[in-house]
Amino acid sequence: MVVNKVDFSESQSENTIDVDYLQQGVIELLDEINLLIDNTQSDLENLTESKYDLVKDQITAAVKNVADLELRMAIVAPMKAGKSTIINAIAGQELLPSCAVAMTTIPTEIVFDAKTKQTILHLTKDTIDLFQNIANNIKDKVNRFGLESLQPKLDRYPHLLDLFTEITQSSDFAFTEQVMGRKAIDHTLNRLNHTIRLSSIIDPTEDYIARLKDVPRIQTPWLKIGKNRKIEARGNLTIIDTPGPNEAEEGLHLTAVVEEQLRRSSIVLVVLDFTQLNSEAAKTIKQQIQPIVESIGQDNLYVAINKIDQRRQGDMTKEQVKQFVVADLGLTNNDNDRIFEMAAIRAFSATKFLLEVQQNPKIQLLQIKSLTSLAQEVLGIDWDEELEDITVKIMAQKAGKLWRKSGFAPFIESAISTLIGNAAPKCINNALNLSRSHLLSIKDDLNLRHNAINQDTAKIQSEIESLENDLSYLESCRDRLSTMADVKIKLQQNLQNILEQLKTEAVIDVESFFAGEEYQKADAIKKADIHARNLLMSNLGDFELFPKWVSENIRAGIEYKTSGTISFKTELEAEYFTQQAIDRAKKHLEELILKVSQDIEVEVKKSREELEKFLIEETQDIITRAKNRLQTAFEIELDLPSPIISSNQEIQIERQLVKTKSRLVDDGYEERLVKKRAWYYWFGAIPFYSQEKRKKPYKKEDYSAVSVTEIVEQINESSDRFVDEIQAKVTVYLEKELHQQVDNFFVKLDEYLGGYLSSLQQAQSDHKLSLEKREHLAKSLAKLVPQTTDCISKTDSYLEKTQKIMINS
């Protein structure tokens, strides 16, 4: 792979060329290693075929990983911070739709592929089938509840009404696997995101996002502007657009899908709005990325402060903003070079114009579609008049200047350089380490057979007997593991105590669940008022009993509360209220489980240390003798992971909580004309008519009712089952996993020594070959050993260069 000189700094240019050079060199080396294995299998007899086949498969996979390097960067941001604008600015075209309301509901991958000539959106068959199911479910809900009951909700989202009409009235609501062209892609992404949001509004009980196996994937060319011109030769950059925390409305469950994309990424970009640095959404973002940053390292965290074009006199300066971000995210001053200020809308205006001119070199100024947005940015209030005396060349120069002043150029160059200078070497480094490990194993096999073929048969036999004694001792050591039983009992008791505490804390009551938050915030008079009344027995005047997690729309539909029962005008409103309560309980339980997971991890770590101490004491002599025999170092460790305590179940409600009831309600009065006679009116001879009010009879009315006490009872029963399932998993862990990992410790040691024993036994067999075959074997070994050594030397050389790049990047 040949790459022209890149216009970065000198050291960065050298690193870039080294990465490309290493990538090609390592691919060639891995191919050479596979050829060496083929030759070893063909030249030597009685090899363990499965072992060498496995090695070949792993190295072949490593070749693909290095050749098809894909660098992933996840972008997380609060709604309207400019996340989509940043991605569009990188692409130079409006790949992602923008909207005045919450837009992103599903992640979208944007692959900047050097080989792609046009922009293509890819949807898998599973994704298309899922959205067809969503459309069918929406139709079913409309048929079941009727349009009238859904209308109040739909009225809050007028931008979804056209899609709602299309889904409910069309017999063919479908998507295609490939969509080409910017407008068609924009339309498709809008439909996908709006369909998810519409479904969450109509049926919040369904979590379709969790069922999404694949995310939409856009392939697009890399924007070749300035220093970006040479980047295409160094692999594909994949950016993942993720929904922000304040984009989750009406029952959307976005956290899990965002965290999945973060885990799969090698770098994370946090976008913050300069005008809202202290917002609640920004704080949520910081909490969300914290565990991911601990995993990938702070060096892989980038921060973009967008909308600096709105900075006014008296606002925070650039240095003050950096100091704020460093303190807020727990970074150090050394991390300043990964904090960028930018005006993405300016960068987007510039890149759109420059890309359009690149693609149409002879285009006339007034034919450029992106001219207006650029002119408004660079020509000021009289932009339309200024255009009369300007050329394409001058506007292109102004676009380049706007690009540089937007703060976007340093972000792109530094971020991309880090992706290539960090993620790429890591990928290469992993492949080299894997190959080196296999080469050392092959070299041990070859060396032993090569040395043993000329050794005395009696000496080989003595070594075999010594190894057999060590293996026999290992077996007796395994039988003496009474210590493990003590460790297991102690661990079992500690984990049981943790789970009992979880079960206790998972129980909720009506007061804390439905009024706790407001109770804590109420003043003394209101608190006294709460204590003086039975909760949910009557309205509490101007003090709103229901907590903030009950939506305003549902609160408006609540008619009255008596005897712990809440009535609603429609069944849909009652079901939605119930689901909100269940979601709240689920969140409460998830928070508890996170803490329990940490406590369990601490206990397991203590037990692992106890077992390791015992096992090392018992096997140290054998390991020392093995190292002396083989003249090599190897480590056998006890791998005892913490049990996975997450449950496949969610909070399940077994009884129907929404009940349809009837009641008699006052129907008011009606006025009627009544025929009367009175002595004072013509002495009763002539009748007259009088209008009188009469009370109407009570009328029967159906309504939906929910018992909050019953909700709490059902949630507690479900939580109890949930914890019981976790307890069962812990029991299985103690009975199987603990034993399995200790067995694995012995198996690894047994395999290492057993492999050496097999090699010695193979050497014994070699001595029984005819003289001609022994000579042929000796020649083959004499050729293969130096070839293997040469491959190891090349691997070490590439590893050294890779480490230098990783240190300097």
UniProtKB/TrEMBL annotation:
InterPro entries according to UniProt: Dynamin_N, P-loop_NTPase
Domain of life from the UniProt record: Bacteria
UniProt GO molecular function: ribosome binding
Family matches, as Pfam families: Dynamin_N
Residues of the Dynamin N-terminal domain: 74-291
Annotated TM spans: none
Record protein name field: Dynamin family protein
